[in-house]
Design a protein that fits this description.
CATH architecture of the largest domain in chain A: 3-Layer(aba) Sandwich
Shape of chain B: globular
Helix content of chain B: 25-40%
Shape of chain A: globular
CATH architecture of the largest domain in chain B: 3-Layer(aba) Sandwich
Oligomer: heterodimer
Structural class of chain B: alpha/beta
Number of helices of chain A: 14
CATH class of the largest domain in chain A: Alpha Beta
Strand content of chain A: 25-35%
Number of helices of chain B: 9
CATH topology of the largest domain in chain A: Rossmann fold
Helix content of chain A: 10-25%
Structural class of chain A: alpha/beta
Number of strands of chain B: 10
Strand order of the largest sheet of chain B: 3-2-1-4-6-5
Strand order of the largest sheet of chain A: 7-13-10-11-12-9-8
Number of domains of chain B: 2
Distance between the termini of chain A: 52 Å
CATH class of the largest domain in chain B: Alpha Beta
Largest sheet of chain A: 7 strands, antiparallel
CATH superfamily of the largest domain in chain B: HUPs
Number of domains of chain A: 4
Strand content of chain B: 15-25%
CATH topology of the largest domain in chain B: Rossmann fold
Order of helices and strands of chain B: HEHEHEHHEEEHEEEEHHH
Largest sheet of chain B: 6 strands, mixed
Number of strands of chain A: 27
Distance between the termini of chain B: 47 Å
Radius of gyration of chain B: 19 Å
C-alpha cells in the first residue's frame, strides 16, 4: 500500500472546491483550533452565517480580498491509513498553467462538478488535462447535491455525461461520488440523505485507491545527478533518483550515451546503508565495478532496454507565460532529467483546443495556457522515453534564457518519426512479386474468451488450404519477444505495439498473421491498425465478445479466481478495464458456434 | 507475498529532500544552509549529511544571529558544527544595529531585523542559493511557495510572479545579485519532522523537551525568563515544566506546559494538540493575518 498519496484538485470556487478541501482538513482534524478561530473571526466580520471553510485555503492577501485563488497551493492531511498531499489548483485564473503544474506530480485527480450546473466545458478541460499529464485515477465529486434534493437521477445523468466524454481519454479508473462539501455528505462519512449511493465516500476512496502499479518498474532508468567522491577512502559512487525499473547489485548496466557497460556492485541509501534493490522514487548512490567516465546527465540503463537517444523530438507543450509566445525558430534552455541543453523549436504541428480536443492545424505559435504539439531539436541528444511510458524521463521544461523564467512544460511523444539519421531502406522486391498477399487478423477479447482456440483453428485451416499463416499468441510472445514486459498499463501497450509491428512485417512478407491477445486498450489496438494502414496492409479486427461471467466460469488457468482473491492485480475485466472495439470488422459471440465455426467465419471474411 | 516496491512516507520525503539538496549543489554556485539550531534546520542538516555521504556536506552553514539566543541553542550549534565537520558562517544582527543599517524597536524585537542581516550575508558571501527549513504546512502564505523560491536583488519574494514548478525539474537560473531560496522540507509536516527525529535519533537542543524553568505570562503566551527577556510590571515569573515547540529569538518565542521528554512523547502530544505551533508560541506571527506574507515579500526566511 502506497503510504503517501499526491492529489490534484480541480474546480473553481463556484464548484465549492475550497470548501471541500476545508471540509477534508476539518473532518480529519488537520485544522487546529487557532486556525479555525481565525476563520470564524473573519467569517463573522464579513457577516457570514457559519465558518467559511474556503478561508482556510486562500493564503495570500489578494486572494482573501478578491475572493479568488491565484496560485497552486499545497495542503497536507493524514488519516491512520494514508498521508495526503493536495496540490490545490485554481479553476479560473491561469487555469491550464496551474492545473498542469499541480497535476505533474499527482497520482489522483479530484474533479469537482456543481450538481446544478452539470458537466461544463471546464469539467471536460480538467479531465483532459489530468489524462494528458498521465494521471490514471480520476474522482469526480458531484458537489452541492443538497441543492438538487439529493437526486439520484441528477447524479446518474452527470455521471453518464462525464463517462461519455472521458471514454475518449486515456484514463483507466474513474469514480463518481455525490457529495455536499458544505454539509459533509459523503466526504468522510456516508450520507444519510443519499442512501441510494452504494459507493465509498470520498475519503475512504482516496484511502484505498491503488496507485503502486502506476510507476514504471520495468525500464531501468537512473539519471546520474552527481558523482560523489571521497578521497579518504577512495570512494566513488553515482548519486541520483531512480526514474524507472528496479536496480539490484550484480545487475549489468549500460551507461548512456557512451554505451560503456559495467556491473552494479553496491547500492546505498542516503547515509550509506546498503540496500538490495532500488526503485522509484528512491534517491540512492550506485557503485559500479569499473572506473568509467560518467557525469551528471548520463543515464544508467539495462543493456537490453535502453532509453531512446535523439535530438529531434515530438512533444506536447503547455505554454506557461504571457511575456512571450512560443514560436517556431525560437531557442530555449531545456531541462530534462538531470540534463540541461538548448532546444530550437522547429515547428508547431497544431494547437489543441483543450475544451473540444479539436486540433487547429494552421498555427505557428502558442500563447499562455495553450497546449500544442511541436517538433524540437536539441543541441545535444536527450536520453528519453515517451511520457506515457515514463513521466520522469518523458517530461521537460523550457526556460527563457533572457528572463530566466520557466516558460514551457513538455511531454515527450517520442522520437520524431523518420529523423534524418534513420531512412527506410527500400528493397528490390515489390509486394506484388511476393507470391501471396498477406494480412493481419487481430483477435481481441477477455482472458478465456476463446481467442486462442479460434486462432489455432484458423491457422490450421489456412495452412491446410496451402496458405501461409502464422499464429502470434499473446502468451507465447511473452516468452521471447516480450519477455521483458509485465502487465502494467504501459507494458500492455508496449506488448500490443510490438505484436502489431511484428504482425505488419509478417503481413508484408505475404503471411496471414493471426494475432491473439487480450489487447484491452482501444488506443493501442488503433496504433496496430495504423501501422498496417501506413504500410498499405489489410488489418481485420475480430472482437471475441464472450461475456465476463462466461469467461470467469471457464477460468482454465485459475486467473479470475486469483484476481478476485486479490492475489494478482490489474487483471482485465476485474480491476483493469477492457475497452471493446467500437468498429470491429467481425464480432463473435458464444451463440455463433464452436471455435471451428468461428474460424470459418473469419476465413470467409478474409477470402478463403 | 512478493515485494511491493514501496517506500514509507518518511522515506519518500527524505528521498525528495535528498534529491533537492543534490540538485542544488550540482547546479547552483555557492549554496549555504541556514542553521539556527532549531529542529527544522537540524533535520535539514541531518538529511544533507546523508545526501552526500561519505563525503562531508559540501557547503557551509549560515547562522543569522539575533544576539538573543538561548545558551542551550548556541552550545548545540557549535557541537553540531564540530560533529559534522561543517564550516559555520555567522551573520550578526548586532553588527547591522551598530552600523545603523537597522534600528531596534523594543516592541517588535529583533526577529524583523534578521532580514537585513541575512541579505547582507548573502551579498557578502555571494551565495547563489540558501537552503531554509521552512515547511508549507506552517503558514498560509508558505503553502503557495515553491521549493525553489526566486529572490530578486533586494531579496524580495513576489508571490504573483513565481516560476511554475513541474515534476521534479527545478529552475534555479538567476542573475548575479539574485539568489534562490530552497526549501527541501517543503512537503513535511510538523508531525513528519518529529517522526523523523525519532526514527533517525537526531539530537536537538534540550529546550525542545520538558524541563523546569522560570517563565512569565505575556500577551497570552508563556515566555522564558532569561537575560534577554524579563517580565514587565505586573508579570510575575513562576517555575513551570515546559518545552519549546519552535526556537527563535529568545525575546519572542514562547513555550508550552508539557511533560514530553522524548521524541515519542512529543509526537503523542503533537497528535493530540489542537493548536498550531506558530499560533501558540510565536508573537511575530500574530501581528496580523498577513504578517508572514509581508515579511516574506521583504526577504524574510
Amino acid at each position: 500500500m502506497t503510504e503517501l498519496l499526491r492529489l490534484a484538485t480541480a474546480g473553481s470556487v463556484d464548484d465549492g472546491k475550497s470548501t471541500l478541501i476545508g471540509r477534508l482538513l476539518y473532518d480529519t482534524k488537520t485544522i487546529l483550533t487557532d486556525q479555525l478561530a481565525a476563520v470564524e473571526r473573519t467569517s463573522k466580520e464579513r457577516g457570514e452565517q457559519g465558518p467559511d471553510l474556503a478561508l482556510l485555503t486562500d493564503g495570500l492577501r489578494a486572494e482573501r480580498e478578491q475572493g479568488i485563488t491565484i496560485d497552486v497551493a499545497y495542503r497536507y492531511f493524514a488519516t491512520p491509513n494514508r498521508k495526503f498531499i493536495i496540490a490545490d489548483t485554481p479553476g479560473h485564473v491561469q487555469h491550464t498553467r496551474n492545473m498542469v503544474t499541480g497535476a505533474s506530480t499527482a497520482q489522483v485527480a479530484v474533479i469537482l462538478v456543481d450538481a446544478r450546473a452539470g458537466v461544463l466545458e471546464q469539467s471536460r478541460r480538467h479531465a483532459f488535462l489530468a489524462s494528458l499529464l498521465g494521471i490514471r485515477h480520476l474522482v469526480v465529486c458531484v458537489n452541492k447535491m443538497d441543492l438538487v434534493d439529493f437526486s439520484q437521477a441528477r447524479f446518474a445523468e452527470i455521471r453518464d455525461t462525464f463517462r461519455g466524454f472521458a471514454a475518449k481519454l486515456d484514463v483507466q479508473d474513474i469514480a463518481f461520488v455525490p457529495i455536499s462539501a458544505l454539509h459533509g455528505d459523503n466526504v468522510v462519512s456516508p450520507s444519510p440523505s443519499m442512501p441510494w449511493f452504494e459507493g465509498t465516500p470520498l475519503l475512504g476512496h482516496l484511502e484505498q485507491v491503488h496507485v503502486a502499479s502506476d510507476r514504471n518498474l520495468i525500464d531501468v532508468r537512473f539519471p546520474v545527478q552527481r558523482v560523489i567522491r571521497w578521497q579518504a577512502t577512495g570512494f566513488r559512487g553515482y548519486a541520483g533518483t531512480v526514474a524507472g525499473g528496479v536496480l539490484k547489485p550484480g545487475d549489468e548496466v549500460v551507461v548512456q550515451p557512451s554505451g560503456a557497460s559495467s556491473r552494479i556492485t553496491e547500492i546505498l541509501a542516503p547515509g550509506g546503508t546498503p540496500v538490495s534493490e532500488a526503485f522509484p522514487p528512491a534517491a540512492v548512490t550506485v557503485r559500479l565495478a569499473d572506473e568509467l567516465d560518467i557525469s551528471r546527465g548520463d543515464m544508467l540503463c539495462r543493456p537490453g532496454n535502453r532509453a531512446s537517444v535523439g535530438q529531434d523530438i515530438d512533444a506536447m507543450v503547455c505554454w506557461l507565460t504571457e511575456d512571450a509566445e512560443l514560436r517556431a525558430g525560437a531557442s530555449y534552455e531545456i531541462r530534462h532529467t538531470t540534463a540541461t541543453t538548448r532546444a530550437r523549436i522547429d515547428r508547431v504541428d497544431y494547437r489543441l483546443d483543450v475544451n473540444s480536443l479539436h486540433r487547429e492545424q494552421d498555427v505557428d505559435s502558442l500563447r499562455l495556457n495553450e497546449i500544442g504539439r511541436i517538433r524540437l531539436r536539441t543541441a545535444s541528444p536527450l536520453l528519453f522515453d515517451g511520457y506515457r511510458r515514463n513521466r520522469d524521463t518523458g517530461s521537460f521544461i523550457l526556460v527563457d534564457e533572457s528572463t530566466n523564467n520557466t516558460v514551457g512544460a513538455g511531454l515527450i511523444g517520442g522520437a520524431a518519426e523518420t529523423g534524418p539519421e534513420v531512412v527506410w531502406q527500400r528493397t528490390a522486391v515489390e509486394r506484388a512479386e511476393r507470391g501471396a498477399r498477406g494480412a493481419t487478423v487481430w483477435l481481441t477479447g477477455l482472458s478465456a474468451s476463446g481467442k486462442s482456440a479460434i486462432a489455432v483453428e484458423l491457422e490450421r485451416r489456412l495452412v491446410a488450404q496451402g496458405r501461409m499463416a502464422y499464429l502470434l499468441d499473446g502468451d507465447n510472445v511473452r516468452h521471447g519477444l516480450n519477455a521483458d514486459l509485465g502487465f502494467a498499463a504501459a507494458d500492455r501497450d508496449e506488448n500490443v505495439r510490438r505484436v502489431g509491428e511484428v504482425a505488419a512485417l509478417f503481413a508484408d512478407a505475404g503471411v496471414i498473421a493471426i494475432a491473439s491477445l487480450i489487447s484491452p486498450y482501444a488506443q493501442a489496438r488503433e496504433q496496430a491498425r495504423q501501422a498496417h494502414l501506413r504500410a498499405g496492409l489489410r488489418f481485420v479486427e475480430v472482437f471475441v465478445d464472450t461475456p465476463l461471467e462466461v469467461c470467469e466460469a471457464r477460468d482454465p488457468k485459475g486467473m479470475y479466481r486469483r484476481a478476485r482473491a486479490g492475489e494478482i492485480s490489474g487483471f482485465t475485466g476485474i480491476d483493469d478495464p477492457y475497452e471493446p472495439p467500437e468498429f470491429p470488422d467481425l464480432v463473435l459471440r458464444p451463440a455463433d458456434g464452436d471455435p471451428s465455426a468461428m474460424a470459418e467465419a473469419i476465413a470467409a471474411l478474409i477470402g478463403g | 507475498m512478493a515485494t511491493t516496491y514501496e517506500l514509507s512516507h518518511l522515506d519518500v520525503l527524505e528521498c525528495e529532500a535528498v534529491h533537492i539538496l543534490r540538485e542544488v549543489e550540482a547546479t547552483l554556485e555557492r549554496p549555504a544552509l541556514l542553521f539556527s539550531g532549531g529542529k527544522d534546520s537540524a533535520v535539514m542538516l541531518h538529511v544533507a549529511v546523508k545526501a552526500f555521504w561519505p563525503a562531508p556536506v559540501p557547503f557551509p552553514l549560515l547562522h543569522v544571529d539575533t544576539g538573543h539566543n538561548f545558551d542551550e541553542v548556541l552550545e548545540f550549534r557549535d557541537r553540531t558544527v564540530e560533529r559534522t565537520g561543517t564550516r559555520l558562517l555567522v551573520a550578526g544582527v548586532q553588527d547591522d544595529i551598530d552600523a545603523g543599517r537597522v534600528v531596534e524597536d523594543e516592541r517588535s524585537g529583533r526577529n524583523r531585523l534578521q532580514t537585513t542581516t541575512l541579505l547582507r550575508a548573502i551579498g557578502e558571501h555571494r551565495l547563489g542559493a540558501v537552503f531554509g527549513g521552512a515547511r508549507r504546512d506552517e503558514e498560509k502564505a508558505r503553502a503557495k511557495e515553491r521549493v525553489y523560491s526566486f529572490r530578486d536583488e533586494f531579496g524580495q519574494w513576489d508571490p504573483r510572479a513565481q516560476r511554475p514548478e513541474l515534476w521534479n525539474l527545478y529552475n534555479g537560473r538567476h542573475r548575479d545579485g539574485e539568489h534562490i531560496r530552497v526549501f527541501p522540507l517543503s512537503n513535511w509536516t510538523e508531525l513528519n519532522i518529529w517522526q523523523y527525529i525519532e526514527r533517525e535519533g537526531i539530537e536537538l537542543p534540550s529546550l525542545y523537551y520538558a524541563h523546569q524553568r522560570s517563565v512569565f505570562a505575556h500577551d497570552g503566551m508563556l515566555l522564558a525568563h532569561t537575560r534577554h527577556s524579563t517580565p514587565r510590571a505586573g508579570e510575575e515569573p513562576f517555575t513551570a515544566t515546559v518545552r519549546f515547540r519552535t526556537v527563535g529569538d529568545a525575546t519572542c518565542t514562547g513555550c508550552v506546559a508539557s511533560r514530553a521528554a522524548t521524541p515519542a512523547e512529543v509526537i503523542a502530544e503533537t497528535v493530540a494538540s489542537r493548536e498550531s505551533e506558530r499560533g501558540a508560541t510565536r508573537a511575530d506571527d500574530r501581528i496580523s493575518d498577513t504578517g508572514m506574507e509581508d515579511r516574506k515579500k521583504a526577504g524574510y526566511f
